[in-house]
Amino acid sequence: MFVLYHILTSQLQVGMVVGVSRLSQSNEPLVRHSLANLVYDRLLDSILSGALASDAEINVSDVAKELGVSPIPVREALVQLSTEGLVETSANRRARVVHISRQDVVAVFQVRQILESGAA
Q: Which stretch of DSSP H or E encloses residue 83?
């Protein structure tokens, strides 16, 4: 609180305070990312880039140590990835990247082609 007061009073002295109306001109909402979201983004990037291959095991403790976070945001990120079908979780604090076969990829592209042709 003292720091904020100090910044505001020093800016008032030099006339640098921005009015609220100028701050609200941006249409972009403020977004506050949780630690679980940041871990999710990192794991998702690793899966999509192939750094975590199909059938690779993910240990909650190892990921937490590597990212310098507690296991809780890692578990939350894995739950989210699990609901999206990218990982399978087990009760022993491990998860596994789902195996995606060539047939799975072909099926997805066939469904996409059907949907896109129907939308046109």
A: helix 71-83
pLDDT band at 37 (very low <50, low <70, confident <90, very high): very high
Note whether 54 and 96 are within 8 A (CB).
no
The 10 Å CB-count burial string (b at 16+, else e) for 58-85 is bebeebbeebebeeebbbbbbebbeeee
Supply 40's token pair.
């999710």
* pLDDT confidence band for 21 (50 / 70 / 90): low
Pick 120 or 46 by higher pLDDT: 46
Q: Residue 12 and residue 14: Cα distance in Å, rounded?
A: 5
Q: What is the mean pLDDT of the segment spanning 3-11?
A: 42
Residues 6+ positions from 46 with CB-CB distance below 8 Å: 52
Q: What is the CATH number of the domain that holds 69?
A: 1.10.10.10
Q: How many domains does the chain have?
A: 1
Nearest to 36 by CA among 68, 73, 2: 73
24, 28, 30, 32: CA torsion to nearest 10: -170
